[in-house]
């Protein structure tokens, strides 16, 4: 390669301004790669380029310098010699003087100055030269946006990396920055400019010389940008966010205390602006700057700041919410500005508490309220404006009092006695029990205003004290101590008083008691007897007011909030106190029938208190369990007792408390005990009778067992399953023990088809056992798995469905390699499948007909004479299939094939059938078989779900769908009408449970099948839910872009199907969706839909006269959509 | 197109808040019970029809109100009485035609629709009433493409919601 010529070509390509940008970029890239690979050195290149760098043609010169600059920046990570760096730096610094080539020079300088130490840096001397030359030659504001950005970057880089060089300029740097920044408007540049200002002041922070005038000059420029506001908010090329810019400006504002005399007045002034943005920004800046400027400087502006903050707070029109869900705070739901203002107030008060306290105490607005307390009597009669003022003052007091203990003391001293006096509360030095003698007769209904304000003060004081170790000798504490007895008396007297009409006042009474009960500092401030008194009163309130949801809710929330606060700060004596009064009361509530309160409410109290603090949980759950067992016993003994109570109890445990227990952790033993106790109870229960099989009770028991067992750890589960196993195996009705002995040898399972022969108790035990098995974690070892398999097989063949679910669940979770060291546990998944599918099954009704061995698959296919047995086997097979399907096991293929075969087997014409099976029975087997597919694909929350630790392979439904679709497709086409309907039904189950995305891919082939199924289902009302889910699939296909082709192809058949379905009388949703689907069809191409217009319009007339309004509304829209397709 | 508006500055009233019927029927609602066509349903059909000369709905101009609708589902009969904004409003026939067309398109064909001007609210009340309830004349009007275009424009907003 002729190198010089090649180099010249590349340089020429870049320098020539007439070439396209992409050509220039390519040549730049090639040159850079030559330099990086050391094929050409930067020195020789520079020599080569000499002409371009020195020519008098300024266009070429500027391009040349730019090229060199760009090349240097592409070499940022390549080591260079000192001399090279020096000469390059000096070149670029020199070029800064050439304004036509300034961009290239800036790029080059920036690239060199940014170099890291390990690859060779610019020396301090060179950097000094650079900043001098910059000062002399560059006039930032005369440049375009891109160059200005470069200038600011250069300044930033110098300030960050070469502070000494910048210092050498002395105060000149301020002039430089001032000149550079004035009138800047571009957001990107501004961002850098704010940073530069900040860096400059950081650099000179400890310089001795006075900088006041420089600060004033710079702030004059900075201040104009406040508040940051974009006039062109939607400009696409601006990627700088307002918030980012505003934040950077704030940092610049706060970078030096020297800005204080200019910044604070500006911010205060902007606070009074009517622009929301200005307000929020100035509040934000104020609180940040206050910290940076320091207490002394901020103190000078205290009066103005106080005035404007007060104005903001008092003018905020939001009212506090006096509802039970706001029990945690005094309803301080402020708007954003007021909230910010309060935060700023808190910050400045903490800095200069004396000044601000003075201002607050002498404030006219506040004093006016305190002078006219009596006018704030009934919250209903106070004008809105005064009310807002009252709340505003409340907030000011609260935030100030919360700042420190000294402000709190001062506030209490000034205001608290006044408020107490207005409420008619007298000082009462509580000698332990004497408070009871406080005269209640002297009370008058508390005035709303003073009550609210005193609670505000009390709450602030409590927040300050609780959890801290502030001595109780402080003035605020002693004041609270003095008044606590009387005020508690007053509040509890009026809390439940029906004479107090206003709910707000009642709320405040409850709230007040809650605040006082949660005061910290042991029993020093609020004595033990007072706490007991509060708890007793509030509990009593709950009993009295179970008819009024407001008071009931309020009291319960207060109780729970007191409980959680006591629990949080673990004051042992208070916990004991709470346990004795509240928890004790709840126990008696649950076990006795003394109160008239509905049982559901009682349970709601119990569960809320149990969940408010960990200290009470065990105790209450214990009570709950006792109640469950005693109620169960009663339920069995007495036929007149309704099952509602026991169902409610179990639901409360399993649906409310168990999830909470699991979430909060540390209570793993509770569910374990519950299950073990329940097992024990059932084992010994003599009186279990048919009533246990009452569906509600039975379901509730099973659900609570499942959920409890699923919450247990592996160890606890092992204990539970062992216990359950021992109970089942000791029961002589089950042959579990027998199976356990020779599960390896046993080749034949004998089934007697008499599930009813199982006693109620046996059935309950078996169901409990299945429920526990269903809830096990995959890691839990199951003892004698083989025997358990046989037990479950025997029972599901007898028609016990929980057994089938349990079997499916084991197959779902069993490890594929054998685990456990004991032989009894040892069974891998493959072995288990072998065992189940090869086990031969004998049945007394089948004896004589089958000499060969009959496996479960044979039974499903009808080898036995008993249709009932066959149906049971199919259900069992479906559940096992579901377990395997969810984990994605291969065997599910065989199971599906069996089920499909079974669908196709012509049961009615079986020759061995001597007596003739009634057609209906045969039909029910087929139906059961079709329904088996429903079991396979639908979600089984109660047996195989994540909650119960099922192993779920992602997308298992899609996989299954793709596997069975070709099979069904083929069969449906080939089969005759009778079979076809069954196949359609089975397939419809699968389609409606498969995610839409998988269906759409195959929509072309599926639509005819779906339409067939729809028409078939529409013949009677039995399958309305199935129809609805299928229709949703159709509407999904219609609305998805990807389904349009398929829809277009099948438009005619879709229309004729839908026009029939819109008269389906059994379900409104079906009709409504069908009409919507019809309307959606109008988006198809004109030529496709126009021929069907008349037909649809005719059909839609019927929908216009539908008995349901929603269908009619849709029909009007649909009719219009079709009618507007005109020729 | 009219060069000057007939009522250049009509009084605009607030829209009445829509009575929300249960959007999701509770599960225990009888699937087979029927909900007869009532006043509100008819009113819902008509309220959003746009006035021919203003961008307001007939409801906002109080041309129709819920009380001015009489409906008897069992006897398949509807009567709508509307009040033009000014007495000499030449748009009254267009409004009446819009009402009729909208109901024809929204109600099952068994209904007999009667459109009337509120007594005393229009100068040529009888003539307009006669015109609006004459099957032949309505059919003829709907043959006129300009009229149909105008009617469709007025009806457009009432189909969108």
Furnish the topology, listing elements before pairings:
The complex is a heterodimer of chains A (1127) and B (161).
Chain A lengths: L2 H13 L5 H16 L5 H7 L1 H5 L3 H17 L7 H14 L6 H12 L10 H14 L7 H17 L1 H5 L4 H10 L5 H17 L8 H12 L18 H12 L6 H12 L4 H18 L1 H5 L2 H14 L20 H16 L1 H9 L2 H8 L12 H18 L3 H19 L24 H18 L9 H21 L7 H15 L10 H17 L4 H21 L2 H20 L7 H14 L1 H24 L6 H21 L4 H16 L10 H17 L2 H16 L6 H6 L6 E4 L8 H16 L9 H13 L3 H13 L15 H10 L1 E4 L12 H5 L6 H21 L4 H13 L14 H19 L18 H19 L2 H17 L2 H6 L1 H15 L6 H16 L4 H18 L6 H13 L5 H4 L3 H12 L4 H15 L4
Parallel strand pairs in A: 1-2
Chain B lengths: L38 H8 L22 E4 L4 E6 L9 H15 L5 E6 L7 H8 L2 H7 L3 H16 L1
Parallel strand pairs in B: 2-3
Antiparallel strand pairs in B: 1-2
- Sheet-strand content of chain B, in percent, reads 5-15%
Return the structural class of chain B: alpha+beta
Shape of chain A: globular
Enumerate the spans of chain A where pLDDT stays under 50 for 5 or more consecutive residues.
Answer: 908-917
Strands ordered across the widest β-sheet of chain B = 1-2-3
Output the CATH homologous superfamily of chain B.
Answer: Fe-S cluster assembly (FSCA)
Mean pLDDT across all residues of chain A, rounded? 82
Based on CA inertia axes, which overall geometry of chain B fits? globular
How many structural domains can be distinguished in the coordinates of chain B?
1
By DSSP (H or I, 4+ residues per run), the number of helices of chain B equals 5
**Structural class of the helix and strand makeup of chain A?**
mainly alpha
Question: What does this 3D model show about the protein?
Answer:
The complex is a heterodimer of chains A (1127) and B (161). With 1127 residues, chain A is an all-alpha fold. Chain A has a domain at 1-169. Helices cover 68% and strands 1% of the residues of chain A. Chain A has a two-stranded parallel sheet with strand order 1-2. The longest helix of chain A has 24 residues, at 614-637. Chain B is α+β, with helices and mostly antiparallel strands. Chain B has a single domain, classed as 2-Layer Sandwich (GMP Synthetase, Chain A, domain 3), CATH 3.30.300.130. Chain B is 34% helix and 10% strand. Chain B is built from five helices and three strands; from the N terminus they run H-E-E-H-E-H-H-H. Chain B has helices spanning 39-46, 92-106, 125-132, 135-141, 145-160; strands at 69-72, 77-82, 112-117. In chain B, strands 1-2-3 form a three-stranded mixed sheet. Classes of the chains: A mainly alpha (1127), B alpha+beta (161).
